[in-house]
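User: I'm putting together a teaching handout on how sequence relates to shape, and I'd like one worked example. Could you take Protein NrdI from Corynebacterium uropygiale, show the sequence you're using, and then write out its predicted structure as tokens right after it?

Assistant: Happy to. First the sequence, then the structure tokens directly below it.
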Amino acid sequence: MPHTVAAQIPVRTIPPEQSPDLVYFSSASENTRRFVEKLERPALRIPLHPRREGVIRLTQPYVLLVPSYGGGDPRKAVPPQVRRHLSIPENRRLLRGVMTSGNTNFGVDYGIAGRIIAERLHVPLLYRFELLGTSRDVAVVREGLVKFWEGQRGE
């Protein structure tokens, strides 16, 4: 029987052999998903509709990629699905870093969701990129993730 969280939302535990080291959230616009696909590495999407699709519980360390919401309002910056994902203790414990997309029009609040998560959960903010990202962003993130995980594993 699957575990549940508040309001009887099913929780699907991702076994270690199926746990990628990149987890992301993408809204219905699919912008973040398109960026992740360009990285050409295994990744797992946080469900868009957790009440219907359930939530995931991870079993391996991961980096989170999240868009910033709320038009620069810090109280609305972290998508509710990401807040729910991080409400699961194992998901918070296994988080090793965060990357974020945003809009530079919001000035100091550009990519604020990543900064909020990094500060609250004491993990590094690894990278910020604007909107869909550029081909340079893709290359930097690809290489950066390889180096980050090599450093984490002491290789």
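A couple of points you could highlight for students: The chain is about 35% helix and 25% strand. The radius of gyration is 15 Å.
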